[in-house]
Amino acid sequence: MSSVWTTTFKSILDLHQKAVITADSQSAQRRAVKKVRKAILAAYEEQEEDVTLPTSLKKAIKKYYAKILEDNEEAEELEAASRPREASFYKKTLSQWDVAQKLFKQEIDQYDKAEQQRKGLECSIKYRTGHAREWFDNMTTLQQQQVEFALNKWNKEGAPEESQAAYRKNNLKKTLEDFSKQIHRTMGCRVVMLVSHKKKASQTLSVSLHESEPQNAKKRFSVSSSGIKEWAATGFESFAEWSKTEFYPSKDEDPAGSDNEDDENGPVIPEIILDDDGYATLPVRDGIGLKGQHELIRNIFHASYKVCTGGTRPVPWGAMTARSSNYLERGSVPTGFVVQDPSHMKKREVNHLWKHWEHRAAAKQKLVVFCKAKVGDVRNNKGKGQSKTKSVEKRVNTLDSDEEDLDRPVSLNSSHFTQRTTQPAANQLKTTPDDVSIKDRYTFLESLSKNENYLELVDAIRDLAKLANQKPSSEQDADLPTWADWSWEGSYLPEDVHVSYDTLNASLNKLRTSPISGAPSAMPVVLGLGLLYRESKRVIEFEEDEADPNTPSYLPNSAFNLQFLVALDRAVADVLSMVVEHIERLTKEALVEDNSMDDEGEVGEKAMEHDAVVNQEGGRVGEDGQAQEKEQEMEKEMEKEQEKEQEKEQEKEQEEKEDEEVVQKGRKRRMPQASMSKSKKPRIEAEVRRSKRVKQPSKRAQM
Q1: What are phi and psi of 420, to 5 degrees?
Q2: What is the C-alpha to C-alpha distance for residues 549 and 524, in angstroms, rounded to an integer?
Q3: Residues with Cβ < 8 Å from 487, sequence gap 6 or more?
Q4: What angle, rounded to 10 degrees, do the helices at 161-187 and 519-540 form?
Q5: DSSP letters spanning 236-271
């Protein structure tokens, strides 16, 4: 029952759906919901059938649109993930059947497999189309809405811009020629076509003129006479201006009266008057619509840029939007004014700029003065004697690098100007690896491509070098291509890489599979991948009519294509995973080392405590040992003294024996064996332990 009211009042809900969903603020959304509620209540009163409305109608309306928003987001995600990249897919107007097969390929495959198993059929491709049609005819309402969303977007936008650029580079010229010949053969027609397309890199346009080959006339139509040449040039510029509004539409609504310039009786845009130096003077804008004022501003800037460059090169609006202070002298535009293509300027911005120029004109100052020009726009063959050149020498420095400081003051030294113009950006815009110093290698690698995965790889190499305490040095690997080295001197890759896709793919495989042991071995790999990205961009964005004279002849027919770009993205992802593994390993080793150092510190403290205890005990043991040694020495000395005393005693006894023998000679009886009797014991016995006390001499010995 809750969906009955949405079905009944669906026309009202659809009418206000855009206003509710695209509301830029909550207050605007609330106002839109109130309008929906008011319209539903008014229709409810006139309704003949009895339809039950929700208790809180406002809340139900918000819930209804929230569900639509959720479904739209899901549809956008599905469309972005399933969008084909091949430009040939968009040759013909797509149907719902074509889109459904791309959006729901997985669901259709699963349904086909289930049906074949259910019917007991062998897995064969011949049944798939029938099963796919069955699934397509039974899509849910949400799936039908998703198909319708993708169908409208793909038919309106066509292939992705990078696919369009690659397909245009290879097929535009041939397609135009084939078309001219076809309508000539089938319908007898001659054609003159102005062709324009958007250039993604610089946000500018490329405009060319194509015409049928003359069959009877001597010259082509565009160059057949001077009047036609002027007509062709005027039409060329007018078509370029119209194409800008087509590819880069302004979000501003043209105010009332701005369309008068298209009216035959409307005011004519005044001609820009130049002063003696070639700069534009401020014209009168009364009665001129917004588009006409845009044209006046464009012409004023163009006149000043012509003085700066000496030629008729277009004003680099895209570069000036990002860094206007690099190009314009201070005071040329109001402070804080965002310089952009005049067709994108709003009315208040035009008025603000015009009032600023009125003050400068009253002070007799130049309206706009360029201090620098885009690289390649300055002509080298300007006459030295011209007064315009003398004025330019005081103000102009060729823009040599996007890395230049925004606030650096412009040098007005003529010698500095001469040096910068004779060598425009050759010293600072480093395009070859051998020109890059070691400290600038990471910056050079980042400048090769803006691919997110590649820039992440460069950051990973920098982190790996920091973890290993290594400088951005590079190891030469004989297995890598010769140009994947910091000694490579070429601005472009060699011809064999462009001519043969097999050679190009083999070089990519070498870079992808090259072993990486650290930052030095990874540097040449990252350099090679970056050079491949840069070369791919050059090939895709190559335009024959705007090509630099130094561009190699093999670049237009290069083997670089979208298939190789996909393979290059995969290779970068593989190399990035290897570098991340090394970073994780080094991080783990650092953590383990820190833990081991902590453990060693604890063990060291315990060992120091143990050594201290041992030293204390060892000191005690040493003291006891020294005391024992002293006692042993004293005992030895005492034993020696005792031996000497014993020898003395033996000598004394011997003397006493001799004295007794002398006394007994005077007696009658002589007892010669008296001293050998058993009753007399020897004085010295080996087993008797003698006292350590020093024995005193006998009294007789003293006498």
Answers
A1: -75, -35
A2: 30
A3: 433, 434
A4: 30
A5: HHHHHHHHHHHHS--SSPPPTTGGGGGSTTSPPPPP
Give backbone dihedrals phi and psi of 520, rounded to 5 degrees, phi first. -60, -40
Write the pLDDT tens digit of every residue in 192-211: 999 988 876 555 778 888 88
**C-alpha closest to that of 521 among 477, 483, 487, 488:** 477
The CB density around residue 310, as the number of other CB atoms within 10 Å, is 21
Find how far residue 524's CA is from the centre of its chain: 17
Contact 275, 281 (CB under 8 A): yes
Phi, psi of 274 (to 5 degrees): -100, 150
Cβ contact 434:489 at 8 Å = yes
Using alpha carbons, select from 451, 436, 544 the residue that is nearest to residue 485: 436
CA dihedral 434, 435, 438, 440 (to 10 degrees): -130
Three-state secondary structure call for residue 62: helix
Contact call for residues 307 and 324 (beta carbons, < 8 A): no
How far does CA 5 lie from the centroid of its chain?
51
Asked if residues 482 and 513 have their Cβ atoms less than 8 Å apart, the reply is no
Q: 104-156, pLDDT tens digit by residue?
A: 888 888 888 888 888 877 767 778 888 888 898 998 888 888 898 889 989 98
Distance, in Å, from the CA atom of 696 to the CA atom of 373, rounded to the nearest integer, reads 127
Contact 579, 522 (CB under 8 A): yes
What is residue 391's predicted lDDT score, i.e. its pLDDT? 42
Nearest to 648 by CA among 598, 698, 595, 607: 698
Residues in the chain, overall count? 703
Residue in the structure block whose two tokens are 């008011």: 38
Question: From the CB of residue 610, how many other CB atoms can be counted at a distance below 10 Å?
Answer: 10
Task: Please tell me the predicted confidence (pLDDT) of residue 381.
Answer: 47
For residue 294 the two structure tokens come to 């845009």
Cα 473 to the center of its chain, rounded Å? 21
Closest CA to 76 of 148, 161, 162: 148
DSSP code of residue 517: -
* Rg of the chain taking only CA atoms, in angstroms: 51
452-467 and 441-448 helices cross at what angle (nearest 10)?
160
Written as one string, the DSSP assignment of 590-638 is HHHHHHHHHHHHHHHHHHHHHHHHHHHHHHHHHHHHHHHHHHHHHHHHH
Distance CA 334, CA 349 (A): 10
Give the bridge partners for 209, in sequence order.
Answer: 194
Cα separation, 617 vs 563, whole angstroms:
81
Tokens standing for 572?
A: 């970068």
Helices and strands counted in the chain (H then E): 24, 4
> CA 628, CA 615: separation in Å to the nearest integer?
20
d(CA 154, CA 151): 5
